[in-house]
Design goal:
The protein is an alpha/beta fold. Helix 4 crosses helix 5, helix 5 crosses helix 7 and helix 7 runs parallel beside helix 8. The longest helix has 18 residues. The chain is globular and about 70 Å long.
């Protein structure tokens, strides 16, 4: 991949995805732009239903049968994934783009040993079975599984939740991918294991020189792990930039409200947690103007009638909000 050092690992431009339903077309993603540079971690954050999973499945071309990509491109190292044939996609998935799923309790096959599941991933590898087993053992050791040689013969139920997630991470990195997609990988883990998994991802990113697309609801994890942050709301990217800018100088009212709702930022004891008033809009019947305007306390004249373009806050910070139209 040395020939692609100046090309982003993923470059998504103007991506729109619809789902056909009996009520009408659900416009799940609209005009999404996102770039993942080499050896960087990009976090995607937003409420449930904002389009995070649809974005991931679009990258992997694993959308449901009622989905259609109505516009845009997804370039992986300068090749458009949307134009790939099925054999090319099979070569991409697992080898060049891998994924860690959010629930380690169900991600592994319960009736097959961990060692066999890991070596089966290497079916495209021409090395001997023993060589594949050694590679699997080495990966388990790298992610902190003690007695890796013996534990290769164990079944998933013989591991804790944190250990299972480590195994899933090891499996995702077996083929040394250019991009690792982590879909809320700490959802089912307690706070201590959560911190261990994040620390492990940081170490492995540097060891494997891969990029990470990290999807999470947890703003604290995004701040700790990511270099850049993309904030999504109701199928749109409303703000994106460096992690410092997003957390210290958020420009979009939605981002500001998300940060205010973070329990870690509550300084005084209270019986009521802060919330964002209103409801997520119906993606079949979209409101005119800014998608967040029905819930925004800072809206003014153009917000309810005109969709805001993308404004540049600084070189690495962009936002779709009329409040930033004069910089």
């Amino acid at each position: 991949m040395s020939n692609f050092n100046n090309v982003p690992v993923i470059d998504i431009s103007n991506l729109s995805v619809d789902f056909q339903t009996q009520r009408g077309d659900v416009r799940a993603l609209r005009n999404v732009d996102l770039t993942i540079p080499h050896n960087k971690t990009v976090g995607v954050v937003g409420e449930s239903g904002c389009g995070k999973s649809t974005l991931i499945n679009s990258i992997l071309r694993l959308l449901a049968s009622n989905a259609s990509i109505t516009s845009g491109s997804i370039r992986f190292l300068d090749t458009n994934i949307l134009e790939m044939t099925d054999p090319e996609l099979n070569d991409l998935r697992g080898q060049k783009i891998s994924m860690v799923f959010q629930d380690p309790m169900t991600a592994l096959n319960p009736v097959i040993t961990v060692g066999k599941q890991m070596t089966d991933i290497l079916f495209r590898d021409s090395h001997s079975r023993n060589a594949k087993r050694e590679k699997a053992r080495d990966m388990l050791q790298m992610v902190g599984i003690p007695d890796a040689e013996d534990r290769m013969n164990d079944y998933p139920h013989q591991f804790s939740g944190g250990m299972r997630q480590r195994i899933c991470i090891a499996m995702a990195l077996m083929m040394n991918p250019a991009l690792l997609i982590a879909d809320e990988p700490t959802t089912a883990l307690d706070v201590t294991l959560e911190a261990q998994v994040i620390h492990l991802l940081q170490e492995l990113k540097n060891s494997f020189q891969c990029s990470i697309l990290f999807v999470s609801h947890n703003l604290g994890l995004i701040a700790e792990l990511c270099d850049e942050v993309v904030v999504m709301y109701a199928g749109e990217v409303v703000e994106q930039g460096g992690v410092f800018d997003l957390f210290h100088s958020p420009a979009h009212p939605y981002t500001q409200r998300l940060l205010e709702c973070d329990p870690a930022r509550i300084e005084k004891s209270t019986d009521e947690l802060p919330t964002i008033s209103g409801r997520v809009p119906d993606l079949i019947e979209l409101p005119p103007g800014c998608i967040f305007s029905p819930r925004c306390v800072s809206k003014f004249e153009p917000c309810s009638t005109q969709p805001p373009p993308e404004f540049v806050v600084n070189e690495h910070h962009k936002v779709r909000c009329f409040l930033s139209q004069n910089g």
